[in-house]
Amino acid sequence: MRTSMVALTVALWSLGAAAPALAGADGPTFDAKAAAAYMDARQTWWQGWSNSQRDHETFCVSCHSAMPYAIGRPALRGALGETGPSAPERKLIENVAKRVTLWRDVEPWYPDQLRGIPKTSESRGTESVFSALVLATRDAQSGTLSDDTRAAFDHMWALQMKATEVSGSWAWINFHYEPWESPNSPYFGAAMAAIAVGTAPQGYAASPAIADNMKLLREYFTRETGKQNLFNRVMGLWASTKVENLLTREQQQAIVADASKLQQPDGGWSTASLGAYQRVDNTPLDTKTDGYATALITLALQSAGVPPSDSRVAKGLAWLRANQNRQTGQWTAVSLNKNRDLNSDIGKFMSDAATAYAVLALTHK
Question: How far apart are alpha carbons 281 and 335 in whole angstroms?
């Protein structure tokens, strides 16, 4: 993996060689304490919100708030001098571990009987991937793969699709909401599964027991990546830096080049530019630079070996540093689906994701 990543780094650096490099991190630093406060408060709200509650005194793990929180909040540990997870982190991890243990007894997040077919299979597929990701992220900090994480991966692999057209992926929640819960989202889900595998400690990705599953997953990415919108392809790029041979070097380079073309004059990116999106309420999409796309792409580029001194990454990071709301701690992004009140709890869903990914991008090493 190291040899291929060195080659990728050289190749991706050459893509931006014509652009002037920015030395160092221009602009202000970000407020880690404020970001943590925002993330913890939003996760506490999510855990108590009536719409997130499920049976056995559990709650669902959302694509927009809980999952990004689980992977982003630990990145602030060092900056804040924390010795362990915050209280909302602990509660989220305990919730996921409980549902993994009670897998056969807990109801799906969205049962067919209440939401229509095929919501049970969509819920199970999505939950299995997110459970593995949340617990693998926890275990990565200790360096030891725990029994409940192994169980979560077992559930995930048991639900991996084998049918020809979707082989290697998972049934995924589809409420026709972009970019995470739509007909386009199984690729996103497969990327998150790959990130979970690559995050797990003790060389889990190379385990002989999952070799056949990983073969299906790699074949899925080989077959499907070229068909995806740029949002999904950026997710695939990030995932490919976690798992060897998920994408070819040429595929990685193409994604970096396509993302670079959409960088806005202010140094950031707009989520609306990453796919052919249309709001269900027919209001116009917001095409301004936003925290989510800027954070995601800057994170993916760095993960793929584009250095912070490269102008694309440097400008993206500078935008993130300059555009944190210092009063609330958040980075703002807006819905692709509806014109929502950004001060409402639901209106903050995209900002929840933006904040978590901004933390990941700004703390990337």
Answer: 11
The Cβ-side half-sphere exposure at 138, using a 13 Å CA radius, reads: 25
CB 193 within 8 A of CB 235: no
What pTM did the predictor assign?
A: 0.93
Give Cα 275 distance to the centre of its chain: 17
Query: Peptide bond preceding 111: is omega within 30 degrees of 0, i.e. cis?
Result: no
CATH no. of 2-362 = 1.50.10.20
Cα distance between residue 339 and residue 1, in whole Å: 44
Cα of 315 vs its chain's centroid, Å: 21
Residues 242-297 pLDDT 10s? 999 999 999 999 999 999 999 999 999 999 999 999 999 999 999 999 999 999 99
* CA neighbor of 347 nearest in space, from 356, 363, 336, 358: 336
Residue boundaries of the structural domains of the chain: 2-362
